[in-house]
Write a structure and sequence with these properties.
- This protein is mainly alpha-helical.
- It has a domain of 68 residues.
- It contains four helices and no strands.
- The longest helix has 29 residues.
- The chain is elongated, with a radius of gyration of 38 Å.
């Protein structure tokens, strides 16, 4: 099902349903002479009307236009994943723990001595 077609009829259907419920509450409050309820329902109708006007005239309308403009400017480029070539590395030499320890000790003995941190002169 196309989502654009479903939202085309869904918004008016929900709006008509909500308006029907509010008008039914208004008629019920009028018939029962319940003035506080009638005032609340009239306030709800005014608020819904304000929301609708703000949607079509306000920032939501501008946001939809902006989204449409951006969507028109974007051209999707196909992404083709490329795997890196498989290159065999050098053969692994099997060494014992003792040989590895000896290699580490030789490496640390050949390393230059650490440099003393910078100390500013006190004179």
């Amino acid at each position: 099902m196309d989502t654009e077609k479903s939202t085309t009829w869904a918004a008016p259907a929900v709006s008509i349903y909500a308006l029907t419920l509010v008008l039914a509450a208004l008629v019920f409050s009028y018939l029962t002479k319940n003035e506080p309820m009638m005032l609340i329902v009239v306030g709800a109708i005014v608020a819904m009307g304000t929301t609708v006007v703000n949607f079509y005239m306000g920032s939501s309308s501008s946001s939809q236009k902006k989204d449409a403009t951006i969507a028109g400017q974007l051209t999707p480029t196909p992404v083709v994943p490329v795997a890196p070539p498989i290159v065999p590395g050098p053969p692994v030499q099997q060494t014992t723990h003792t040989e590895q320890t000896t290699q580490v000790q030789q490496t640390t003995q050949e390393a230059p001595p650490p440099v003393a941190p910078y100390a500013p002169s006190t004179t």
